[in-house]
Design brief:
- With 451 residues, this protein is α/β, with parallel strands linked by helices.
- 44% of the residues lie in helices and 12% in strands.
- It is built from 20 helices and eleven strands.
- Strands 1-2-10-7-8-9-11 form a seven-stranded mixed β-sheet, with helices on both faces. A four-stranded parallel β-sheet has the order 5-4-3-6, with helices on both faces.
- Strand 7, helix 9 and strand 8 form a beta-alpha-beta unit.
- Helix 11 crosses helix 13 and helix 11 packs across helix 16.
- The protein is globular and about 65 Å long.
- The relative contact order is 0.13.
- The structure holds pyridoxal-5'-phosphate.
- The site of pyridoxal-5'-phosphate has 19 residues, from helix 5.
C-alpha cells in the first residue's frame, strides 16, 4: 500500500517558524533536492531569513509616487506560488477521505503553473498525475510537467481556451478514481490566497510608507490570488482592489472574448471562486505591452536603467523574478496608482506569480513581430508601456449593475457545469466567503492531529 506524505497546515505556510525546529531545518536543506518531499514545508512566501519575499520597484521605473510592492512567487517549490493552491486542494481532499495514494489519480486542469504545481505535489505525495492544458502554452511549462513525472493531455488553443480544458475535465470525472484539483471551482484555492497570500501581503506592506495597503492588483486566471483582497479589505476597508485583463480578452471588463499572449490569466470566464463583491476596478492591459515589457525588464535592464534614469544596478538586480503576468500586474499597479492619484507613502501591492525561467521561448519572435530591437526603438517602448495606458481602459465595477453583470456571467458559465442557481446566489453575500475562510482552523486541527 502506498502512503501519503504529510505537509504543512495553513498556519504553518504563513508562519513556517511554527514548525518543529528540526523539521524546519531539514526542510531548508531539502531546497537543494527538488524532489525531496520535505519541500512541502517550503510552501511559503517567506525566505530563509523569515521575511516575506518582495521588492519595491524604483520610482524611476514606475513614474508614480506610491510604492509599488511586488510579492515574489518564483521561489516557491516548483517555481510559482500556484503550488500552494495545488497542495491545499490535495491536502483537503485527503483529510476529507476523498483522495488516497493507492487508489487516486490526480487531475490538474490548468494553463500551466497550476499544472506544474499539481504534477510536483503529486510526485512528492506519491500520486500519479495528469495535467490537462492548452497545446499552445510556453514549451518550458510542458518540460517541467514531464520532469516531475506528470502526464500531459493537451486541448486545442491557447490561454483563453480554458473552457475546453474544463470540458475535457468532465470526461475524467466519469472514473471515480480520478480526483480533480479543480482550481477554478474549489475553495482551498480561495483559502490559501486569502489567508497565506493576503496576510503575507499585509506584512510585506507594513514595512513601507504608511504601512497600509491602499490598493491590491492582480490579473486573475483562477482568481485565487485575488482572494488575498478579502483579507486586505478586512484589514484596510478603504483599499481599492483591481483585477487586470488582457485587452484582447476583456471578459470582466465588457464580456469580451479573444486570444491573447499573457499566459496564466484571462481565461474567458468569471471563475466560480472569484468573489466579485470585493473587486472594485477592472483594467484592460494590451497583451503585447506585457511581453515587450518583459523583454525590457529581463533582457535590457541596463538600457532600461539609462532610459528611465534609475540608479545603476537597481533594475539589473530584479532580473529573473518576472513573467509576462508579473509585468501585467506591475503595469496595472502603476495605472491604478495614477488613476487614484495615490501619493508618497501609499502602498500598492501586487504579485509576480512566476519567474523568467519559463518564458525565454516566448520572447524569441518579438523582433519578428515588432521590428528591430535597437536602442531608439526600445526607448519608445518604455514610454508607451510604462507611461502609457488610457483612462478608457479602467472600469469601476463597484456599482450594482456591474456586479449583476458579473454575477450573471458567472451563472451562465457554472450552471452549464452543473452548479445550482441557489449555490451561485449564496456567493452574492460576503458571509459565504467568510464561512469558507472560517474552515481553515478546523482543517488545520485535523491536519495536525493526523500528522
Ligand atoms: C503566470 C501566471 N500568472 C497569473 C496567474 C493567475 O493566478 P490565479 O489563478 O491565482 O488567478 C496564473 C495562474 O495560473 C499564472 O500561471
Amino acid at each position: 500500500m502506498k502512503t501519503t506524505v504529510a505537509g504543512p497546515s495553513y498556519k504553518e505556510m504563513l508562519h513556517p517558524e511554527l514548525l518543529p525546529p528540526a523539521l524546519r531545518r531539514s526542510a531548508a536543506e531539502a531546497v537543494a533536492r527538488e524532489l525531496d518531499p520535505l519541500n512541502l514545508f517550503n510552501i511559503t512566501w517567506r525566505g530563509p531569513d523569515g521575511r516575506i519575499r518582495h521588492v519595491v520597484l524604483p520610482k524611476e521605473l514606475t513614474g508614480v509616487e506610491a510604492n509599488i510592492v511586488v510579492l515574489v512567487g518564483r521561489h516557491f517549490p516548483s517555481g510559482s506560488h500556484k503550488v500552494g493552491p495545488a497542495y491545499c486542494t490535495l491536502m483537503e481532499g485527503e483529510l476529507a477521505g476523498e483522495i488516497a495514494p493507492d487508489t487516486s489519480t490526480i487531475i490538474g486542469p490548468s494553463t500551466g503553473n497550476f499544472g506544474i504545481g499539481t504534477a510536483y505535489i503529486s510526485r512528492l505525495k506519491n500520486y500519479p498525475a495528469v495535467v490537462i492544458m492548452p497545446e499552445q502554452m510556453s514549451r518550458e511549462r510542458y518540460q517541467r510537467i514531464r520532469q516531475y513525472g506528470g502526464e500531459l493531455d493537451l486541448t486545442p488553443g491557447s490561454e483563453s481556451d480554458v473552457i475546453l480544458v474544463l470540458e475535457r475535465t468532465e470526461h475524467y470525472k466519469k472514473d471515480p478514481r480520478n480526483k480533480i484539483l479543480a482550481q477554478f471551482e474549489l475553495l482551498p484555492n480561495y483559502r490559501f490566497h486569502r489567508y497565506v497570500t493576503g496576510r503575507s501581503a499585509i506584512e510585506a506592506a507594513s514595512a513601507h510608507g504608511d504601512g497600509r495597503i491602499a490598493a491590491f492588483v492582480s490579473a486573475p486566471g483562477s482568481a485565487g490570488t485575488l482572494a488575498a483582497a478579502d483579507e486586505i479589505k478586512a484589514a484596510f476597508p478603504e483599499s481599492a482592489v483591481c483585477a487586470l485583463e488582457p485587452k484582447e480578452c476583456s471578459t470582466l471588463f465588457n464580456n469580451g472574448r479573444g486570444t491573447h499572449r499573457i499566459e496564466g490569466i484571462g481565461d474567458k470566464m468569471v471563475t466560480l471562486i472569484h468573489n466579485v463583491l470585493t473587486t472594485d476596478y477592472v483594467i484592460a492591459i494590451h497583451d503585447d505591452d506585457c511581453v515587450a515589457g518583459l523583454e525590457l525588464v529581463e533582457r535590457r535592464a541596463q538600457l532600461l536603467e539609462r532610459i528611465a534614469g534609475a540608479p545603476a544596478g537597481s533594475l539589473v538586480e530584479l532580473q529573473g523574478i518576472f513573467g509576462i503576468s508579473g509585468i501585467c500586474n506591475i503595469l496595472g499597479a502603476i495605472r491604478l496608482a495614477r488613476h487614484l492619484g495615490l501619493g508618497p507613502g501609499q502602498n500598492v501591492v501586487t504579485i509576480a506569480t512566476d519567474g523568467f525561467d519559463r518564458y525565454p521561448s516566448v520572447l524569441s519572435d518579438l523582433a519578428r513581430r515588432r521590428g528591430p530591437l535597437d536602442d531608439p526603438a526600445l526607448a519608445g517602448w518604455f514610454e508607451e508601456i510604462f507611461r502609457g495606458g488610457s483612462p478608457q481602459d479602467i472600469l469601476d465595477v463597484r456599482p450594482q449593475p456591474q456586479k449583476e453583470r458579473l454575477f450573471g456571467y458567472k451563472q451562465r458559465v457554472w450552471t452549464a457545469f452543473g452548479y445550482s442557481v441557489a449555490y451561485l446566489d449564496s456567493m452574492k453575500s460576503q458571509s459565504f466567503w467568510d464561512a469558507e475562510f472560517e474552515k481553515i482552523a478546523p482543517i488545520d486541527e485535523a491536519l495536525l492531529a493526523r500528522r
